[in-house]
Write a structure and sequence with these properties.
By secondary structure, the chain is of the alpha/beta class. Strand 8 and strand 9 form a beta hairpin. Helix 9 packs parallel to helix 10 and helix 14 crosses helix 15. 48% of the residues are buried. It binds pyridoxal-5'-phosphate (PLP).
């Protein structure tokens, strides 16, 4: 029995899907202890947008350590943090005329969501938050209350209160209905006797990644943004998985014409898998925080600032984002034979794709067979029925093509066997 089976908690999950011991990794490939290579279309659930052991980031971190750069600093000023913040200001915020302040908190996505919820409730004096069906926002109690998945919610141990879930306006047939739901919500908020009061915030992902790769309809999202504004609620965009260039632009909402009050970021922000989380907050809202009120030992880790700073240099010109558009088109074309199959739906944007095969059992078999064939993918969506493809944005074309070939062949075979 391995030490993992002997001592690691039953909570372990991904290691059951990929039952090997991984040892090394470069860009879109991981190698196990036996020397078998895997093409990685999972990429740390969207953390490794710039690949495993990205050469530029690795060198920057090595150099920083070699010169004894400060590695841990709570929220004290460090030169690493200044460089990251200046870069983020110049490369991301200023070109978009975004006046937002940067708040650092504990280094995981769920910490960012917690901080956003707390601030929204503080600013508005309201308790209720509206989140969306199939949304995923993290595992700590406040964020979990926003997460829709019953399996995760069931582990809370206490009632998850003060959040309601309403229809997500995904592109396609559902968008029209979801728009009508928003209209009804607005009517209720305006009717003083409806028993429904406006919320502190709407918490939304522009692309629901864990929820099954559901892409928000533009008219729906704009309507949501205007509803939030008209009822004095904050619009919080959780861009933790779909941000950092994943959809072909730095923010997933860049082409939606909305102006979020708070943006939650984590995952890819640290560049090479070094943890960090950050909220972007409109200055007039940020004024409601008092010093140290939402604290945390690991706020803005310096190694994440160093690697994350290198990640930002990918956004100084349009090269990588053009590549993402082009590789996304490749993914779309390669998946077309699956989209043609009865009962299968392919959805995606940029380099984030989902293949909805309708049944969790089928998806599980496909994920397992892909693994045997040397491809890492994971299942998401209701009952785990969607195979999610979230390869590093830097995946070489040859690896992208090989991985897609494996996925298409395995999926065709599994679906053929199932009829
Ligand atoms: C959209 C979104 N929000 C929040 C989270 C939670 O992030 P973390 O797992 O780092 O707490 C995730 C994680 O997958 C996510 O995809």
């Amino acid at each position: 029995m391995s030490i993992f089976e002997q001592r690691e908690s039953e909570i372990r999950a991904y290691c059951r899907v990929y039952p090997v011991v991984f040892d090394t990794a470069v860009n879109a490939r991981q190698t196990d202890e036996q020397g078998k290579e895997y093409i990685d279309f999972f990429a740390g659930a969207g953390v490794l947008n710039f690949g495993h052991n990205n050469e530029r980031m690795k060198q920057a971190v090595i150099d920083y350590l070699q010169r004894n750069g400060v590695t841990h600093s709570l929220d004290m000023h460090t030169s690493a943090k200044r460089r990251f913040m200046e870069r983020f200001h110049q490369v991301i915020l200023e070109p978009r005329n975004m006046p937002h302040k940067m708040q650092f908190m504990g280094p995981t996505g769920t910490n960012a969501v917690e901080a956003a919820l707390k601030l929204a409730r503080r600013v508005t004096g309201r308790h209720e938050v509206v989140a969306f069906q199939h949304g995923f926002h993290g595992m700590t109690l406040g964020a979990l209350a926003c997460t829709a998945n019953q399996y995760f919610r069931g582990a809370a141990g206490v009632p998850l209160t003060h959040v309601s879930h309403t229809a997500f306006g995904a592109q396609g047939k559902a968008a029209e209905q979801a728009l009508q739901v928003l209209e009804r919500l607005e009517d209720s908020y305006q009717d003083g006797s409806s028993g429904v009061r406006p919320p502190a915030a709407f918490m939304v992902e522009v692309v629901q990644a864990e929820g099954g790769v559901n892409i928000a309809d533009k008219a729906w999202l704009q309507r949501l943004a205007s509803l939030a504004k008209s009822v004095g609620a904050l619009l919080i965009v959780d861009d933790i998985q779909a941000g950092m260039g994943r959809t072909g632009s730095f923010f997933s909402f860049d082409d939606y014409g909305i102006d979020p009050d708070i943006v939650c970021l984590a995952k890819g922000l640290g560049g090479m898998g070094t943890p960090i989380a950050m909220n972007l907050i409109k200055p007039e809202l940020d004024k409601h925080w008092s010093p140290g009120e939402h604290t945390g030992t690991f706020r803005g880790q310096c190694l994440s600032f160093v690697a994350g700073c290198e990640a930002l240099s990918y956004f100084e010109d349009s090269h990588l984002m053009e590549e993402v558009q082009q590789k996304g088109a490749m993914m779309h074309a390669a998946l077309a034979p699956l989209a043609d199959l009865a009962g299968v739906e392919v959805r995606g944007k940029g380099m984030l794709y989902g293949v909805d095969v309708g049944l969790g059992e089928l998806a599980k078999t496909i994920v397992g067979r892909c693994f045997e064939a040397g491809l890492l993918v994971s299942a998401c969506g209701s009952g785990g029925r969607v195979i999610k493809l979230i390869p590093p944005l830097t995946t070489p074309e040859a690896d992208l093509r090989s991985g897609l070939e494996i996925l298409v062949e395995v999926t065709q075979n599994v679906l053929r066997e199932a009829v």
